[in-house]
Specification:
With 522 residues, the protein is of the alpha+beta class. Helix content is 45%, strand content 12%. The chain has two domains: 243 residues, D-Maltodextrin-Binding Protein, domain 2 (3-Layer(aba) Sandwich), CATH 3.40.190; 195 residues, Periplasmic binding protein-like II (D-Maltodextrin-Binding Protein, domain 2), CATH 3.40.190.10. The strands form six sheets. Strands 3, 4, 5, 6, 9 and 16 form a six-stranded mixed β-sheet that branches. A three-stranded antiparallel β-sheet has the order 13-10-14. 50% of the residues are buried.
Length: 522
């Protein structure tokens, strides 16, 4: 029965992805099409900017998968600063990895800056270990479909899997917890292995089940167990075109009302720029974006009770937050209705929007002269505040070893390398891909601190400020989350397009979620 349910869930995910595409095709009007075509967003620009990720296969296609990798010039890697912690770890890695030379690992990771930076360090990993690593890098939904299929069929396709924190309830039993690996392979466990340096938000939200809901509005430690290690610490922050703000002689507003005034000021469709952009496609992106508003108005999706979770999305606070979110529509790029964080990143890179609430990792895209027409023009600050203050959505993923891997020893070595302090310090020096590290000491390194002060990693100042205040919004994972997620994404997106009022949308969402039955995640 469980297997049939798993296969049904996979089919549902594929169907939902198809429906999202069909929804866009059927609802686009001629006028909107002309606008999209003018931006060359849906086709040409997306293809052009994604083409950097067309990767060459490293493993034998007969293995049943075509994992991929890019190459990085050895000289570029050699030129990076290598802290003692990294060099010591790599020498240890060389000393223990010889029995696994020639082994092939396959990783299933999201097509995001942090995994891409790791991939670009692969030549050095191979030089030290002789272990071949294939990187299957796919967008969020495709990664979820692929990994769900793998675990549902108990397939050894992937040795390492990237799991978004909101989906950990579904995947936890298919991962070998790191502490279990350390006990199984003491001779392959680095003597100075340290897990205390992971930022507690990453451990709480992207590594544990049940999650430790240690921040407002919940502030409850549920005593979860670690099933994987945090891969990145993406936070949603405010991006703004500092060149435009400096020209006007103003600074970014601090409240949502002031943000709206800023957006109105810079909204100039006839001039080819809109006041803002959003990620309002019926997709996880629209829920993540709405969370910034929801918590800042004192609302929440769930109430924690002894019996489990009770949906409380149809509250006055949540309605006010949704009203606040959709009032930005009239001054946002029309492509927002069909955008996720990836398409919003493109809108930012081609200069179509003056403001956006976006993941920190997109700083490496919009401020990169190779990828962006607006490189060097973006500034960063905390999200606008509502009546309950300023909140930033955390949407991090963890990375772990599959229970069905046939190469668990080699996979354990890779996991230690990929999440180590030294590796993160080196990866943050990547000139193309960088995100927010999971280990707190990374930003204490003198070289990284200099990069922050010089402006290249300026967004980390904002991330540090947010992490120090604990005003972090996150989704709660539980076995039925995917069904609730479809409901929430649907009603929020329909509110953005105007087919539902905020009150109608959240009333509908609560009624539909209540019908899902008991939601007991613990």
């Amino acid at each position: 029965m469980q297997r049939e349910a798993d296969i049904s869930n996979i089919r549902y995910l594929y169907l939902h992805t198809f429906i999202q595409i069909a929804w866009f095709v059927m609802n686009i009007t001629r006028r909107r099409f002309i606008k999209y075509a003018g931006v060359a967003l849906i086709g040409g620009s997306a293809t052009a900017l994604t083409s950097q990720y067309l990767l060459s296969a490293r493993l034998n296609p007969s293995d049943g998968v075509t994992p991929t990798t890019t190459t990085t010039r050895t000289s570029e890697l050699d030129e990076r600063y290598k802290p003692p912690a990294y060099l010591d770890f790599m020498e240890w890695l060389r000393s223990v990895s010889k029995p696994y030379e020639g082994k092939k690992l396959v990783t299933a990771l999201e097509l995001e800056p942090s995994p891409l930076a790791l991939q670009r360090m692969d030549p050095e990993y191979f030089d030290y270990t002789g272990i071949l690593v294939g990187y299957e890098l796919t967008p969020f939904i495709q990664n979820l479909v692929n990994t769900t299929l793998a675990v549902s069929t108990r397939s050894p396709t992937y040795d390492i899997m990237n799991v978004d924190g909101s989906n950990l309830a579904r995947f936890k039993d298919h991962l070998i917890p790191p502490q279990e690996l350390a006990e199984l392979y003491p001779d392959l466990t680095y003597a100075d292995l340290n897990t205390d340096d992971f930022h507690r938000a990453g451990l709480a939200f992207a590594a544990k089940y049940p999650q430790d809901l240690i921040f407002p509005p919940y502030e409850k430690d549920l005593g979860g167990s670690i099933f994987m290690w945090p891969q990145d610490t993406p936070l949603m922050i405010r991006f703004y075109r500092k060149d435009l703000y400096e020209k006007e002689g103003i600074t970014p507003g601090r409240t949502w009302d002031e943000y709206l005034e800023d957006v109105k000021l810079f909204d100039d469709p006839s001039g080819g720029i809109f006041g803002a952009g959003s990620m309002a496609l019926p997709h996880p992106s629209v829920i993540f974006e709405y969370l910034n508003h929801l918590h800042s108005f004192g609302g929440k999706i769930w109430e924690l009770e002894e019996e489990g979770l009770r949906c409380v999305i149809n509250s006055d606070e949540a309605v006010a937050a949704l009203e606040n979110y959709v009032r930005l529509k009239n001054f946002s790029d029309p492509a927002s209705a069909s955008s996720t964080w990836a398409e919003l990143g493109l809108l930012m890179a081609v200069g179509r929007v003056a403001n956006a609430i976006q993941w920190t990792g997109y700083a490496s895209i919009v401020n990169n002269p190779v990828k962006s027409l607006t490189s060097g023009k973006w500034g960063f600050t905390v999200n606008p505040a509502g009546s309950a203050g300023s909140f930033s959505t955390f949407g991090g993923a963890g990375v772990g070893v599959s229970r069905y891997s046939r190469n668990t020893e080699a996979a354990w070595l890779w996991l230690q390398w990929a999440t180590s302090l030294g590796t993160q310090i080196v990866s943050m020096q990547d000139p193309i891909h960088y995100s927010t590290p999971t280990r707190m000491k990374v930003q204490n390194d003198s070289v990284i601190a200099q990069e922050i002060e010089s402006g290249r990693l300026e967004y980390l100042k904002v991330a540090n400020e947010i992490l120090s205040t604990n005003r972090i919004a996150t989704l709660i994972t539980f076995p039925g989350w995917q069904r609730a997620r479809i409901v929430l994404g649907d009603v929020i997106a329909r509110t953005w397009t105007g087919s539902l009022t905020p009150r109608e949308a959240l009333k509908d969402a609560q009624e539909r979620i209540d019908k899902l039955g008991p939601l007991f995640p613990f």
